[in-house]
Amino acid sequence: MLERRIAVADDEHLHAAVRWNNEDHLLEQALLVLRVHCDSLERERHHAHRRAEHDRHFNDPECTRTSARCARAAARLQQLLVQELAWAREDVTEAEHLQQTLRSVHVAKRVERYRQHPHSTPRLDAVAALLRHQAESAAQVGVLLTEDRDQLHALAFEEQQAQVFLASPASTSLSQIRAMSPHQFERLISGLVARDGLDVKQRHGGPHDGGVDVIATTPGGDKLAVQCKHTTKETPVGIAAVRELNGIAGPVHHADIAILITNSTFSKPAAKLAQQQDIILLSRWVLVRWATWGESLLDILELDETAGLAA
Q1: How far apart are CA 245 and CA 265, in angstroms?
Q2: Helices marked H in the chain — which ranges?
Q3: What are 185-200's pLDDT values in tens digits?
């Protein structure tokens, strides 16, 4: 039957049949490329999701500063991959629709179809656009994955440094801090401030401390006034301590930066007032980053080592 139909077909019908068959084959190949791209994006998104959800409890003192940053990097990558995946799925759906439409063209209409489009067809042009979009997406995802890999390498190096510091005598755990006296706690804080390259003018409180325990100057020239609140309980530091520091840090000591630090936490009213008055609160979890894992105070406060706060 096939041979008889070919024998009676003219050149135009044979040409149309070959073109239709090739167009269908190209659509099938394009769909394969688009589906493979979708599968790849889905795998990368799944990996990013697992990294982002690995540990939500970043207040755990066992977590280093890199734990949260790794998860944030993964969450950002996941968000970008979700968008790329949504676009890729739309492209697959469109390509499937183009293929279904092509296969529904009746044999009798194929000659007329290729008479109207002697060089290409709207469907082939549309598929070409989808493939260009896929190539652009693949390149963009490649850049995102490279950036993510480089960031993870940097974080792995930081984590290694943190583990080395943790094993050193310079590391002070939260349990050790809790066992200290208030005076020892003040000494610890002034020692940490000096460790990070600040010039300490006052190392602990006393009868004539002017209401603050530690006074220091950053390499950029900013003056810090630090009030320490040590406790052996889990009771949050209240708003009274914030009010006290706010009344003396600037008016009495002319400090550029006022810091209230505790090995506990802060109440919500205290946190609200501190935000209103530009007072920095450092709770026990920040203290762990600083004392236990060795992160610099300048990094915690995000201060430039070479310039003043005003600059």
Answers
A1: 16
A2: 2-8, 11-52, 65-103, 107-116, 122-166, 174-178, 182-195, 239-248, 268-276, 284-287, 297-301
A3: 999 999 999 999 999 9
Return the bridge partners of 225, or none.
Answer: 215, 258
Output the furthest CA–CA distance in the chain (Å, rounded): 113
In this structure, what DSSP letter does residue 291 have? Answer: I
Dihedral sign for Cα 232, 236, 238, 241, please: positive
**What's 303's DSSP letter?**
-
User: Which of 211, 222, 213, 214 is closest to 246 using CA atoms?
Assistant: 211
Tokens 């697992």 appear where? 50
* Residue in 271, 260, 202 with CA at minimum distance from that of residue 231: 260
Asked if 252 and 285 count as a contact pair (C-beta separation under 8 A), the reply is no
Q: What is the chain's mean pLDDT, rounded?
A: 86
Q: In terms of pLDDT, which residue wins out, 64 or 248?
A: 248
Q: Which of 174, 157, 219 is nearest to 194 (CA)?
A: 219
Distance CA 211, CA 236 (A): 20
**Torsion angle of C-alpha atoms 156, 158, 164, 169, degrees rounded to 10:** -150
**CB–CB of 281/263 below 8 Å?**
no
Confidence band of 203 (pLDDT split at 50, 70, 90): confident
Give the percent of the chain with pLDDT over 70.
89
> What is the spatial distance between Cα 170 and Cα 260, in angstroms, rounded to a whole number?
23
Residue among 249, 223, 240, 250 nearest 308 (CA):
223
Q: How many CA atoms lie within 13 A of 76 on its CB side?
A: 11
The angle formed by the CA atoms of residues 240, 244 and 247, to the nearest 5 degrees, is 140
